[in-house]
Amino acid sequence: MHTTEELQQILDTAIQNLKFPDQPKQLYEPISYIINLGGKRVRPLLVLLGTELFGGNARESIHAAMAIEVFHNFTLVHDDIMDNAPLRRGKATVHEKWSTNTAILSGDVMMVEANKNLAKVNPVFLKDVLDTFNETAQGVCEGQQLDMEFESRNDVSIDEYINMIRLKTAVLLGGALKLGAIIANSDKKDADLLYQFGENIGIAFQLQDDILDVYADPEKFGKQVGGDIIANKKTFLLLEALTLAQGENKATLEEWLNKKNFDPQEKVAAIKQVYSNLNIQDIARNSMDAYLQKALTVFEQIQVDDSAKENLLELTNLLMAREY
Amino acid sequence: MHTTEELQQILDTAIQNLKFPDQPKQLYEPISYIINLGGKRVRPLLVLLGTELFGGNARESIHAAMAIEVFHNFTLVHDDIMDNAPLRRGKATVHEKWSTNTAILSGDVMMVEANKNLAKVNPVFLKDVLDTFNETAQGVCEGQQLDMEFESRNDVSIDEYINMIRLKTAVLLGGALKLGAIIANSDKKDADLLYQFGENIGIAFQLQDDILDVYADPEKFGKQVGGDIIANKKTFLLLEALTLAQGENKATLEEWLNKKNFDPQEKVAAIKQVYSNLNIQDIARNSMDAYLQKALTVFEQIQVDDSAKENLLELTNLLMAREY
To answer: Do B145 and A82 count as a contact with CB atoms less than 8 A apart?
Structure first.
């Protein structure tokens, strides 16, 4: 069993060793570009941790981990086109740096590269690995679709929102862990429990994102605090506030949501005041804690020694203890 | 062994039975839409014919055939965005009917659906099937990239053009046949020969397309004869003419290629006259025949009874005898 630091080392080496053809340059350069923008590599790490949880060696699941990382980066490239995003990790997005057509086609070939990596796993597990990967990939696409649809809808319920972030974010964490479990030849029931653990952690993680966007320490937060509020983004907090607000709170919310010209700081302060009146931060934290708790309860049921579980629990604590 | 008509029946039924989720509607409706626009279904038919060539039953490769058909339609959806095409088979393209974002994301999920179908093949052949499919898919993306790059280049050689159509069109025919062969557990050498047969047929077929666009019977041709000429499309014919033309022919070609305002019929007539002066039609037909001949020579080397080869030869003759 490796330490998490060793696993990260294995991952870094594998990512550096990802080789793409030289030609056509326009097709393959964007792939190296987006992958080398960095990121925490949490998803491929989950694949390796999933394997080692059940006594497997991370090196057996390194190709599946690469598949997950390349797939994740593919979704970033295509999502950035759809979201019209100029920046990704502080650098120009692929469609900005090259063109939309390049971003579409390089993204497509990344999907193929992800599948090529997947095809390298031990053939004994290949069918199960493919089924889990494809189900995950499909979920992620559905999540992005719902996210886009929600932008123009005014009747998004909390349940719909949770389902959207489950698909867009959480199934990939669950899927990554399950791939690792499959390759370690785990018990099927345990693999499913691990998937559920990942999915619930993913939801909790996204709710934490929503909370931090409003309540993070501006000194430490990597981006503008209140960005979601300024953009009228339908986060858990806003949807919850829209559900609960009545009278003056409701009027204030609607006024600011409809305002075209405003001082951003003023808007953030006004909406935060409504959130405070309605106890939104507490509600969001309670919901986040409930998903985290559900994840941990499921995790406990997995039939392996507690010592084997330490790395994953540590990572969970690390992820959930973000203040920025 | 089935007749080609029976195989087409099997395909039609399988295509009708392709089921996609109901929700999100915006994500899945475009998939049914594009697949039901029709088409000759040549590529999935090649999968089935590849299997039956080696004594397999087409029903064993029906999922691979569906994977190829869905993948092909995925490339149409994304290519149409990149080529800014308003129509596909006489109907609105997906990005026109819905939106570019929908076309990107529905295309992405079609790629996943293709892979889901692929994962249903007999696990014994899965690794080989995936490797062939992924290599094919990668080639198709590279071909599309080269095709786009050629639009803004003025120094495209005939060899580069042949390589582009090989990747964009021909590898998918070769790949489809090879998938069929793999699933029939054919000899590896025979599967590779069959791939080469398909690739060469594909190149011949595309050259025929280039020829027909200029010389088809306007009464029978489904689209405007001379469309490639009007659009300055870098076909085999134009590239060959640019290579050979000197003096007056060269001047006429360049004049019409650079003209912004012109009568389409006049342009088609003028360029056709240059083609005629330079014997371009014969040169193109000779090149097409050479690829067809190469395909047939390779096909002869495949170690199965002549009777098993009849269906594929018949389809080849049918495809290559198009007059429109």
So the answer is: no
Which of A22, A108, A105, A127 has the alpha carbon at shortest distance from A70? A108
pLDDT bucket at B324, cuts 50 / 70 / 90: low
Domain A1-186 -> CATH class: mainly alpha
Chain B residues with CB inside 8 Å of A109's CB?
A: 138, 141-142
Domain locations in chain B? 1-186, 188-324
Question: Does residue A101 belong to the interface with chain B, where contact is any CB pair within 8 Å?
Answer: yes
Q: CB neighbours (10 Å) of residue B274? A: 22
Q: Quick one: pLDDT band at residue A321, thresholds 50, 70, 90?
A: confident
pLDDT tens per residue, range A111-136: 999 999 999 999 999 999 999 999 99
- Distance from the Cα of A263 to chain B's closest Cα (Å) equals 31
Residues A187-231 have pLDDT tens digits of 999 999 999 999 999 999 999 999 999 999 888 777 788 999 999
Q: What is the pLDDT of residue B12?
A: 97
Provide the pLDDT for residue B221: 75
Cβ–Cβ contact A149 with B under 8 A: yes
Phi-psi category of A247—alpha, beta or left, where left has phi over 0 and alpha has psi -120 to 50? Answer: left
If you classify domain A187-324 with CATH, what class do you get? mainly alpha
Contacts of A24 in chain B (CB under 8 A): 142, 145-146, 149
Min Cα–Cα distance to chain B from A119, Å: 6
Shortest alpha-carbon distance between residue B29 and chain A (Å):
12
Asked if the domains B1-186 and B188-324 are classified in one and the same CATH topology, the answer is yes
User: Cβ A101–B141 below 8 Å, yes or no?
Assistant: no
- The contacts of residue A185 (CB under 8 Å, 6+ apart) are A54, A56, A125
Sign of CA dihedral A72, A73, A74, A80: positive
Confirm if A168 and A140 have CB atoms less than 8 A apart.
Answer: yes
Which chain B residues are within 8 Å of A148, Cβ to Cβ?
A: 101, 105
CB contact under 8 A, B105 and A144: yes
* Helices assigned H by DSSP within chain B: 4-17, 25-35, 42-53, 62-82, 94-97, 100-118, 123-151, 158-165, 171-183, 188-215, 227-230, 236-244, 247-258, 264-277, 280-300, 306-320
Helical packing angle, B4-17 and B62-82, nearest 10°: 70
At residue B217 the predicted structure's pLDDT band, cuts being 50, 70 and 90, is confident
Chain B residues in contact with A105 by the CB 8 A cut-off are: 78, 82, 141, 144-145, 148
Structure tokens at A165: 């972030």
Q: Does the domain at residues B188-324 carry the CATH identifier 2.50.20.10?
A: no
Give the model's pLDDT for residue A225.
87
